[in-house]
């Protein structure tokens, strides 16, 4: 009984920190100078809403101001991510029976993570575009192609990681339901299927991260990456389809496993 009270106390303190962290994140978001975008979050899809109604974080009068707001948001999101990791540990534990509040708070943190990802991506895109306006005539075509492929790799990795988060969220929700209602074979089959998707997604993320590092180090040709692009996009878009057929030899020509082993 004492252990349960201690655990509940830790959970309560954690959830209090989540509430305070989200409030602080929102406060920084609202204070960012800019257009009247407040109150629109949630009326559109998360990404579309943020893209079209971002605060004038990226149009601040000077670079220092813009960087300060993004740094403050990043600081708060890092704190929230650490709390999310703790919550995920509790959700996976059998000691806690009612996990609805934990799952709700984890989703609340993930909403802020999505908001920050869009802010971060928009900032990088604007910086790149602004620099490109002045240097358009000087850009080496090979370098431009390398940057485009690198951006595609980064975006694909982000998409896969977001799908993994969604799968894990569904697994947690279904696990709670199956504990309440034993013998639900459909839900159990779905959980096993989601776990397979998570494992396969993480494999592709590892491969793509290796390719991105190789690209940064000029140890792989852009053309070699382009050859796998269609198959990778097919996997990202269609891996959950019942008739999906994966190319098991997708990365073989790139010798990525040998490189990963050599890197330890």
Automatic annotation (TrEMBL):
Q: Where does the record say this protein resides?
A: Cytoplasm; Nucleus
Q: Which controlled-vocabulary keywords does the entry list?
A: Cytoplasm, Nucleus, Repressor, Transcription, Transcription regulation
Q: Which family does it belong to?
A: Belongs to the CNOT2/3/5 family.
What sequence ranges are listed for the domain CCR4-Not complex component Not N-terminal?
4-32, 55-257
Domain of life (superkingdom)? Eukaryota
**What is the name attached to this protein's record?**
CCR4-NOT transcription complex subunit 3
By its UniProt entry, which InterPro entries does this protein fall under? Answer: Not2/3/5 (IPR040168), Not_N (IPR007207)
GO biological process assignments: regulation of DNA-templated transcription
- Report the GO terms under cellular component: CCR4-NOT core complex; cytoplasm; nucleus
Species this chain originates from: Myotis brandtii
Q: What is its main location?
A: cytoplasm
Instruction: Please list which residues make up the signal peptide.
Output: none
């Amino acid at each position: 009984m004492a252990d349960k009270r201690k655990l509940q106390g830790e959970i309560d303190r954690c959830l209090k920190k989540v509430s305070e962290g989200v409030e602080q994140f929102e406060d920084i978001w609202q204070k960012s100078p800019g257009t009247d975008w407040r109150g629109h979050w949630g009326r559109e899809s998360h990404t579309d809403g943020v893209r079209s109604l971002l605060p004038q974080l990226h149009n601040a009068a000077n670079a220092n101001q813009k960087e300060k707001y993004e740094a403050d948001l990043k600081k708060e999101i890092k704190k929230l991510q650490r709390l999310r990791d703790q919550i995920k540990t509790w959700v996976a534990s059998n000691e806690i029976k009612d996990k609805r509040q934990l799952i709700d708070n984890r989703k609340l943190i993930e909403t802020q993570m999505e908001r920050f990802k869009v802010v971060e991506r928009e900032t990088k895109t604007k910086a790149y575009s602004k620099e490109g306006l002045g240097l358009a005539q000087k850009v080496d075509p090979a370098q431009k192609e390398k940057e485009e492929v690198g951006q595609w790799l980064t975006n694909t990795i982000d998409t896969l990681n977001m799908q993994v988060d969604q799968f894990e969220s569904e697994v947690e929700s279904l696990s709670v339901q199956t504990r309440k209602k034993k013998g639900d074979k459909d839900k159990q089959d779905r959980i096993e299927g989601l776990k397979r998707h998570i494992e396969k997604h993480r494999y592709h993320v590892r491969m793509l991260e290796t390719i991105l590092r190789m690209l940064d180090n000029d140890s792989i040709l852009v053309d070699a990456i382009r050859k796998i692009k269609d198959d990778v996009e097919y996997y990202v878009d269609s891996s959950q389809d019942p008739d999906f057929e994966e190319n098991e030899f997708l990365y073989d020509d790139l010798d990525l496993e040998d490189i990963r082993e050599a890197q330890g």
